[in-house]
Specification:
The complex is a heterodimer of chains A (about 160) and B (about 375). With about 160 residues, chain A is α/β, with parallel strands linked by helices. Chain A is built from 6 helices and 6 strands, in the order E-H-E-H-E-H-E-E-H-E-H-H. Chain A has a 6-stranded mixed β-sheet, with helices on both faces. Chain A is globular. The termini of chain A are far apart. In chain B, about 50% of the residues lie in helices and about 25% in strands. In chain B, the strands form 3 sheets. In chain B, strands 2-1-5-4-3 form a 5-stranded antiparallel β-sheet, with helices on both faces. Chain B has a 5-stranded mixed β-sheet with strand order 7-9-10-12-11. Chain B has a two-stranded antiparallel ribbon with strand order 6-8. Chain B is of the alpha+beta class. In chain B, helix 7 runs antiparallel to helix 9, helix 8 packs parallel to helix 9 and helix 9 runs antiparallel to helix 10. The chains are: A alpha/beta (about 160), B alpha+beta (about 375). The interface between A and B is medium-sized, with 23 and 27 residues.
Chain lengths: ~160, ~375
């Protein structure tokens, strides 16, 4: 398990969630870069720090701007966004260029497993196995990483 | 242009041809139904005969009518298409029945149920057209009123439908908003517990916090599942247990314990989902924590099936049996007892030799 640690940016306006996420990111063997609470802050930090992965809430301190943040990170910053939201159904069909979503409320284990899984996907370019519970991949990324849909097996 | 007396003479000849005492001619002259005859052999099909009823209906005198094509009855509001259809039928030599808006001499409109039909001579050549007219203004008025009423009814229905659709949209938006808040607050609660757990050094306090975190997570898993399906009233038990087991086993980090699932697809009312989830969480946690002390591996089985009007949920392990367990989670068992009482469910713990078997019987509808 000696993979280069992912640099992860947190985009979340709820302070307690952001702090706890930092711990989870570290425990998952990744490297937290910092936390942005608004869309401007998020884009500025993403441009400056060039994260491998950005965990993006849809509702930020300046409104439901997370979708735009994700698109900007995907288009302009060379990073990959992952949504973390309670409103999974409201995401655009193309996930705004993000690689997937973790639905809130997530569990400690759910986030850690998802991060470990995405670390492999991002560094090796393909999925290490079926998508873990709690994580949903965007169709484009599921195809790119040849990820197995767990539902097709367990149905 | 031939003059009036010429056409009048033609009409008279027509009548005379039937014989002076002809009862048919007398009937046509005297009937209350307006009738005309036109000469199809003449240019522009002029009227050569009009009975008194026709003159009464239209308000014209006989010399104002004879020799003219009957289109003089049309006016500004007459439907051009309907008038065209009459013209086409005449040109084609066919019968036609048509409701036309016509005008009297004084300019007042009336609805004319016109019937026109060609009259042929012995060689089959059309020589006359016979026309009858009935004033159907009253009938038309009723028809129009009915149409207006149904249009205004339709309008009211449309408006009401629009209002209801809007109300439904608002309600759905509100539901989403509340759902969103519930999920975010659950996330906040679990983050609070996790954060405090990181801070406290006391293992007993840590264990309590972990226990509460597990319970909050169970409720969180319910809410994540609840609105995933289209039916917000029902809750998929098997899908929930699958999520729950993945999460519990993942965070337990006990590779030496194997979990077997045998889950039939079963749904319960959404209102029962949270207490049910808490019961399953306690039983699973119990099996995991107290059935298998450090160093002892084994297997946990979770089964969901239907049994005589009950849902049967079995959670069994091959760890230390129920009598040898050093159970410290008195609170967990209290939760199970209380919630089973609330769900009107029966919970039975037996020695599985080796291990423990807990069976919960949850009535599908109502009580036992």
């Amino acid at each position: 398990m000696s993979r280069p640690a992912l640099d992860v940016l947190i985009v979340e306006d709820e302070m307690l969630l952001a702090i706890e996420l930092e711990h989870l990111i570290e425990e998952a063997g990744c490297h937290p870069l910092g936390c942005a609470m608004s869309s401007q802050e998020a884009v500025a930090l993403a441009e400056q720090l060039k994260p491998d992965l950005a965990l993006v809430d849809v509702h930020l301190s300046d409104g439901p701007t997370g979708v735009d943040v994700a698109r900007k990170i995907a288009d302009d910053c060379g990073g990959v966004a992952l949504f973390m939201t309670a409103n999974v159904k409201r995401l655009p069909d193309d996930f705004a260029g993000a690689c997937g979503v973790i639905g809130k409320p997530y569990s400690e284990h759910g986030v850690k497993t998802a991060l470990a899984y995405l670390a492999v996907c991002l560094t090796e370019g393909r999925a290490p196995g079926p998508v873990p519970v709690g994580l949903t991949l965007a169709p484009a990324y599921a195809e790119r990483w040849a990820a197995e849909d767990p539902l097709s097996k367990s149905a | 242009m031939e003059d009036y007396s010429e056409f009048r003479r033609l009409g008279d000849e027509l009548a005379a041809g039937q014989g002076v005492g002809d009862p048919f001619a007398a009937a046509i002259k005297a009937t209350r139904m307006a009738m005309i005859v036109t000469d199809a052999t003449r240019d522009d099909n002029p009227i050569i005969f009009a009975n008194d009823a026709f003159l009464r209906l239209t308000g014209y005198s006989r010399d104002e009518v004879i020799g003219r094509n009957c289109r003089f009855l049309q006016g500004p509001e007459t439907d051009r298409e309907a008038a065209g259809a009459v013209r086409d039928a005449v040109a084609a030599g066919e019968d036609i029945a048509m409701d036309l808006l016509n005008y009297r001499k004084d300019g007042s409109p009336f609805w004319n149920a016109l019937y026109l039909s060609p009259v042929r001579d012995d060689n089959g050549k059309i020589v006359y057209f016979f026309g009858s007219q009935i004033d159907v203004s009253d009938k038309k008025a009723i028809e129009f009123r009915a149409r207006d009423r149904s249009e205004s009814l339709q309008q009211m229905v449309d408006e009401r439908t629009r209002e209801l659709t809007q109300a439904l949209e608002q309600k759905t938006a509100l539901l989403h908003e509340v759902d969103h808040r519930v999920k975010n607050n659950l996330q906040l609660i679990s983050s609070l517990l996790l954060l405090q757990n990181r801070r406290v050094p006391d293992p007993a306090v840590k264990a309590s916090l972990k226990g509460m975190l597990g319970r909050v997570n169970a409720i969180a898993t319910v809410h994540r599942r609840l609105f995933q399906s289209e039916d917000v009233e029902r809750f998929d038990v098997s899908a929930f247990i699958r999520d729950m087991v993945a999460d519990l086993m993942g965070s337990a980090m006990r590779d030496d314990i194997r979990v077997e699932l045998d889950l039939e697809r079963v749904e319960i009312p959404a209102a029962k989902a949270a207490p049910f989830a808490l019961v399953v969480n306690e039983l699973l946690t119990n099996a995991l924590r107290h059935g298998f002390p450090e160093g002892r591996g084994g297997r946990i089985f979770v089964g969901v099936s239907r049994l005589n009007g009950d849902f049967r949920i079995e959670i069994s392990d091959d760890g230390v049996g129920p009598n040898k367990k050093t159970s410290t989670s008195g609170f967990g068992l209290t939760i199970v007892q209380l919630l089973c009482q609330q769900l009107k469910a029966k919970c039975e713990t037996t020695d599985a030799e080796p291990g423990t078997r807990v069976v919960v019987l949850l009535p599908v509808n109502g009580a036992h």
